[in-house]
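2024-03-11 09:14:02 DEBUG pipeline.ingest accepted 1 chain
2024-03-11 09:14:02 DEBUG pipeline.ingest length=186
2024-03-11 09:14:03 DEBUG pipeline.predict start
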Amino acid sequence: MWMLMKTLCAPYAAMRHGYRVRHTTAHRAEKTQARSSVDCANEIFTIGFTRKSAERFFESLRSAGVERVIDIRLHNESQLAGFSKRRDLEYFLRVILGIEYVHLPELAPTEDMLRAYRAQRARWPAYERQFRALLEERRVEETLPRTLFTRACLLCSEPEPDHCHRLLVVEHLARHWPGVEARHIT
């Protein structure tokens, strides 16, 4: 059913945005090969852009078969990597890869939490506890539709997920949504 909906809805969405759509057998086979054997409805990707070239960043998303990037940064306008600024990133994702861009600041830390962590006033264990409590308080698993995360990739700046809130977001969702698995793109 999902594949039928995707086949019917994707061309309409693309045409709405001014794109011409031609589905060939080769195109469908390429899309099918991009999907892993894991149920993609339960897989949430994560990626950080720091220490990645634009080429590596966009090719990683393409290779993973990502269809939506969910930007979970609090500040997404003034990053060092030019391709990661909100408007530029939204444009590049759409034009280069046909990927949707969504900014969800409700999955970002508060300004005070971020400032304290960056200034080293809060170490990772304290930051982690605060951020987990914030996610519980925000009840994101109830307020955000699970379907939003299908073939989606959480974006933040940290190069690795180990000390990044994107890891905590995926773990939170996995605790509340059975079967969710994280796949970190490095």
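2024-03-11 09:14:41 DEBUG pipeline.report The CA atoms of residues 134 and 161 lie 19 Å apart.
2024-03-11 09:14:41 DEBUG pipeline.predict end
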